[in-house]
Amino acid sequence: MSDAGGAIGQLASGIGTALPALLVLVWLAVTVVLSVVGVGLLMVPGVLGALHALAGRERARLARHGPEVIAPEPPPTQLRLALVDATTRRELRWLVRHATLGLLLGVLGALLPLVAVRDTAFPLVWKLAPADATATSIGFGTADSWLDAFAVTLLGVGWIAIILGLTPGMARLQGQPGRWLLAAGPDTDLSLRIAELTATRAAALDAHATELRRIERSLHDGTQNRLVTVTVLLGAARRQVARDPAGADELLERAQSAAEQALAELRTVSRSILPPVLADRGLAGALSGLAAECAVPCRTDVEAPERCAASVEATAYFVVAEALTNIAKHSGAGQAAVTVRARGGRLGLRIEDDGHGGADEDGGSGLTGIRRRVAAHDGTLRVTSPPGGPTTLEVDLPCGS
Hints:
It is built from eleven helices and five strands. By secondary structure, the protein is α+β, with helices and mostly antiparallel strands.
């Protein structure tokens, strides 16, 4: 059932690129026709740019539902170079297939659940329908009795069987042209991807080193000083216990207070390494707790039916925690929202506020640290914060890393 649900979601998401693909295909055809009289030559850079941008969107969509589609080097938008460019030719072949078969499969994937629900539930509403109304979702037959109504239900069960049996294959068929034609070929220079992975590894190491320094500083400046105080107070109390029992008792109380403070700071440091609330309540519960503690009213909307790797959930938790801290300190917002979706092996976060905007990574807002944490998992961070607001942070993480 979960496979069919994911397949339907993938098919429906394909409409988001298949419809633009159909428009680009029509635009391309008009450009070719007008090129005969020379006017279409002026449209070539625009239509090629739209083609390349749409292909990039399809790669990103496919990556959300499966393995990453490694992009080749950016193809040209000049006519002479595009005519001999292998990447452009592959993208054109994908465009034709996705605008036709991909769109058809996407529409079927979106319609099948609707007709299945409609036909399965028909006995509940058939008495309310006009006498000559079509009984089935495919446009034939009328229902004059309960037997006819339940026959329509059998058709609904057939739709459900089709959904369970065929939609995973339909989703693969819809995605295959993109995975075959939009990926970098064997002769493509992958140095850019290697450089990107090298930079990601460096960011991961840097984030790890920064986290170790933070933990060391917290232990040195906080807990260690408290424990030194406890040791000094205990030593002083031991020396005074014989000659001044009352003074020794006061010192012991101060030592106990310092020990309790040290214990509280140790708990704070341990929670900052891997919050236990993630194991106890899951990501949804942990983020609800963060939202409840935020100084700015914040709502959460979390749909993560399956747990991600612990390190990914911890990264998501710290991203939201840092973002909400930034909102409370810098944004002047009246409200904030956190949306989380886990689909197709990817975890997507969206943190929004209605503040004055203008967030700057170089301004000490914590965005650099968020970007490093996300890059450590080979994820992506996109910040939209125009002057006047609103500010939106969108994070995409692989669930299994």
